[in-house]
Amino acid sequence: MAASSKVKTRVGENIELGFVEEVDSECLLSYQFPSKVGGLPAWLSLKPLPCLDELQCRKCDEPTVFLLQVYAPRDHSELTFHRTIFIFICRNPACCQPNNNDNLRVFRSHLARINDFYSPEPPTDAVTASTSADKRPHARDYQTLCVICGAPGPKTCSRCHKTSYCSKLHQTIDWKAIHKTICKDDGGGDTASGETVLTFKHPNVLFPEFELVTEKEDFQATKVKSNEDKMKEYREFLSSDSAKDIDDSLNPEELDKMATKSSEDDEQFQAFKDRIRHEPEQVLRFDRGGEPLWISASNTPSEIPTCSCGSSRQFEFQVLPQLLCQLDVDSVGESLDWGVMAVYTCSQDCDIGNKYQEEFIWKQDLVKTD
Ligand SMILES: [Zn+2]
Ligand SMILES: [Zn+2]
Ligand SMILES: [Zn+2]
Ligand SMILES: [Zn+2]
């Protein structure tokens, strides 16, 4: 095999791994500053939210939906006492193209400890769903939200004038699924409380909801192995459950063929698998200022665009393909897919007030070649 100088497997010391865990939705609300996957976004800054243009898919112009958020405060500035990164994705499989990020949007939000929305004291367990709403600030207290996706909802049902939507698409989905049976001219039907409306979750729009919990990666770099050892391990790995988890959609012959080709891509793919096999359930790797663990040596970004403030962006975390197994998106034929999604954010966390700043995401796919 070729020298592996270009294969990037940094032995990071401060890498945090993310795992999904089932938990009650009531534990994943804005005032609890969660990291989470699926369900509705738990907005950090409660106003202004990203505008609808910013939340659109760049391919089809339809609204993207919430994929995940990572609560990642930084102590380098008072402004980032609370800090969360959000990823949104278009659910239309046709918009999901290899090595193209047009179906993704990513945002940074941060707030100082003393801010316009939350208490400076951490939330306590005593604050529960039954606690008064003023202790549980929510974005709907500041603007109407789409009942389907939790984005700003400036459009209102013209019959009941009560239920709000971000778009025609989400109104249509809601109408067919439930709203036609509860909408009344006089405004009855839906309860007056937006909260009740929002608890109806459309399974074809929102992803299943999980908490994202992190733990430090415990990884010991092993000694340099011979190529024979590598191949032996690799073949063992291919027949293991972990390999199946990593990518069900690649058939074993294809994987095998890729393994026997002596190329940088294969080595990087192998390095990727070697690194994650220790914790095959990981769905996210957090390594601010580090390097992504690429799935392939091809299609890595040559240049990361600078932030609108002029500062460079740095790598912050990556989403792994294992997350797809949790999202109920695998269907025969086309579906959402990714190899690695690497998120880069402003290294200076420039002051954005209560606004959401769009950041940069790079989607890398494993493109099968003959
Ligand atoms: Zn789209
Ligand atoms: Zn919507
Ligand atoms: Zn209505
Ligand atoms: Zn910036």
UniProtKB/TrEMBL annotation:
A GO cellular component annotation in the UniProt record: nucleus
Entry keyword set: Metal-binding, Zinc, Zinc-finger
Keyword Zinc: yes
Matching Pfam families: PDCD2_C, zf-MYND
Alphabetical list of SUPFAM superfamilies matching this protein: HIT/MYND zinc finger-like (SSF144232)
Keyword Thylakoid on entry: no
Domain named MYND-type: residues: 146-183
Any GO MF annotation of the entry: zinc ion binding
Protein name (database record): MYND-type domain-containing protein
Organism: Lottia gigantea
